[in-house]
Specification:
282 residues; mainly alpha; three-stranded mixed sheet; 3 strands; 50% helix; elongated
Length: 282
Amino acid sequence: MAGPCSARLQGDVAAFTAALRTLVNNPQFSDVMFVVGREQQKVFAHRCVLACRCQAFRGMLGQAPVGSQDSSSSVPPQGPFILGNVQPEVFLAVIEFLYTNSVTLNSHILCVKFIKDTLSVEQVCEALQAAVTYGQVDLQQHCLAFIEGCTAAVVRTQGFRELSDVVLARVLRSDRLAVDELDLVQAVREWAHVSSAVLERPVPEVAALPVRELRLPLLAPSELVTLESYNQQDLLIPVESIAAAWRAHALRKGSGVPSRLCCPRRGTRPRDHHRHLEPHAK
């Protein structure tokens, strides 16, 4: 850190940018290669630049090589990384922007397109979190649709456990999640314990918002009994919410419960009592 009597030397920004531009798609000193598009165009890059400038690349470059026996290896994969669905000109424009912080084309649109084209189960939650943070509505919708298509796999990722409570609640409002409610409750419980440890706040406090979106009336009586047992340990779910689910069973209807909580999701396994939740159920 500079002392009170020191001076900062500011170099020529234009010259610095021009120097970095010479590294774009330059095989000299490159340590990672991509094969892009149907044309299978080779693009050379430097993993340290990509990883420090872009979360999507950091996730991609940190993954273990396919077929690796040691997933914990500190040696990063060298590629080539195959990006068959990405247009080479789009990819090169993104690379140029990451190296130089400028590009002739609309870099924002290109970066969003690149994220869409390279979404994966492991990275989609991170992309959704960023899209919400920066107000990118179109990217939010794209990420949510991706999550809806492979929910069971997504909820097991580290990215899911690192979602904010606001973003997780937004995901849980979807009727199209391809996962059963019992599995979703367990995923939220794991998320809550991670968030509690990171934020140093009680489980019920960090989970207050997402838990409101869990559709407990969809669970069978035996599942509710088990849920109550687990809930005594961490108080994840308010007692009132569990009581409302029991009430729906006792009355054989969803009255007194918000209609959205009685609506089966796309991945909900059918239970005998679901027919009693009509007209709330689809």
